[in-house]
Amino acid sequence: MMKNQILFLIFCFSLFFYGCKKQVDKFKPDFSSPIKYNNYNLVWNDEFNDSGSPDALKWDYEHGFVRNKELQWYQKDNANCKEGVLLIEAKREVIKNNLYDSTSTNWRRNREFADYSSSCLITKEKHSWKYGRFEIRARIDSTKGSWPAIWTLGEHGKWPNNGEIDLMEFYIKNGSQSILANAATGGEEQYSIKWDSEVIPLNYFLKKDSKWVEQFHIWRMDWHEEEIKLFLDNELLNTISIDDEVNREGVVPFKQKHYLLLNLAIGSNGGNPLNSNFPITYEIDYVRIYQKTN
Predict the structure, then answer these.
(1) Alpha carbon distance 236, 95 (integer Å)
(2) How many domains does the chain have?
(3) Is residue 229 part of a domain?
């Protein structure tokens, strides 16, 4: 009889505990403390719970026209912490290109004006990591023209030989808005790129939940010496075997430290934003980086 009573009490306690356990609202920022994982230490994080500019000890910014012939002018002002998130806003505004040269053949210089602005936050020369578990909770905007990303670049070497890991990219691929999980390095030929990419159409997620775009989601990378695994809400999207990712210089760029980038690009792969409503937003609830205790 005593044994049955004990089992009954355990059952009741379990019901009470799980019934009272707070469920994270998918539509709101999560203010709870970082999860503790067995055999992992939290080595770096930003919860973005203060108001105003992001922490200058943790983040720097890209400036101007940077890559891919995108339309936006990157600047610090478009990134602010507000109500528990890092809010990156892409705006339709005219900005004078201070590098403008009408005779230049470089697209960064021969555009007199930018018609859009946005932000790219970067930890380069501030923080970098080799291996670990990266968790980023974010909400993206599917407005046409939007190209948000969570990605890393290797500290040493020129792109793409330094290695690129895309925990998340969202843009138009094969005619459909899609979520991508990638790794890239230099191919055998000079300036060529070798991609290990998985492309999942947005409709795949919308069929599961019609309000998917309105919600926050967790992008995770488990990066170890042998492989990189990229997850979205605990669903494995891509597994990259690190030793297969040798660049043309004979180097495996995913065995070095990488720094982190969070950005919202406009145009190019994101599509033509001419008829889109602005601002386009990208909200990052937190960034948490763990490494194994050994």
Answers:
(1) 41
(2) 1
(3) yes
169 is catalytic: yes
Note the Cα 136 to chain centre separation in Å: 7
Contacts of 10 (CB under 8 A, 6+ apart): none
List the CATH number of the domain containing 172: 2.60.120.200
How far apart are alpha carbons 34 and 248 in whole angstroms? 39
| 35-55 pLDDT per residue, tens | 999 999 999 999 999 999 999
Residue numbers of the domain that contains 58 = 37-63+120-292
CB proximity list for 56: less than 8 A, separation 6 or greater: none
Residues in CB range of 225: below 8 A, 6 or more apart: 131, 242, 255
Nearest to 66 by CA among 104, 106, 20: 106
Closest alpha carbon to 168 in 31, 273, 264:
264
- Tens of pLDDT, residue by residue over 122-167, are 999 999 999 999 999 999 999 999 999 999 999 999 999 999 999 9
Of the candidates 181, 143, 126, 149, the residue with the CA atom closest to the CA atom of residue 67:
149
Structure confidence at residue 15 (pLDDT): 43
- In the set 47, 62, 164, 245, the catalytic residue is 164
Closest by Cα among 117, 133, 159 to 249: 159
Q: Is residue 58 part of a domain?
A: yes
Model pTM score: 0.92
Residue tagged active-site, from 169, 198, 235, 245: 169
